Amino acid sequence: MISFVLDTPYIELIKLLKVTRVAESGGAAKSLVESGQVYRNDRPESRKRAKIVKGEVISVMGKSIRVV
Q1: What is the pLDDT of residue 42?
Q2: 12: which DSSP letter?
Q3: Close Cβ partners of 24 (under 8 Å, ≥ 6 residues apart)
Q4: 2-4 and 63-67 as β-strands: parallel, antiparallel, unpaired?
Q5: Which of 5, 13, 47, 51 has the maximal Cβ count within 10 Å?
Q6: Residues 68, 56 contacting (CB under 8 angstroms)
Q7: Tens of pLDDT along 13-68?
Q8: Cα–Cα distance between 18 and 37 in angstroms, integer?
Q9: Which domains does the chain have, with CATH numbers?
């Protein structure tokens, strides 16, 4: 599991995928979300700019990101 330390109130989903290197680019991050491969707290997330806050877990392609 990847731990991401959030030092702002939130981070947009596609930015989180880029900064943690789960996605190689913004376009790749958008494609992952659009194709239904991204889960937020075990529920599908289809909003590319969803505001992710501390305590949430994002899962994509067998990887998990915990926002702390």
Answers
A1: 97
A2: E
A3: none
A4: parallel
A5: 13
A6: no
A7: 999 999 999 999 999 999 999 999 999 999 999 999 999 999 999 999 999 999 99
A8: 15
A9: 2-67 (3.10.290.10)
- CA-to-CA dists, residue 30 to 6, 21, 33, 35, 55, angstroms: 21, 13, 5, 9, 22
Q: Which residue has the tokens 């899962």?
A: 59
CB of 4 closer than 8 Å to CB of 19: yes
HSE (side-chain half, CA atoms, 13 Å) at 62: 0
Among 68, 61, 67, CA closest to 22: 61
The length of the chain in residues reads 68
58, 4 Cβ separation under 8 angstroms: no
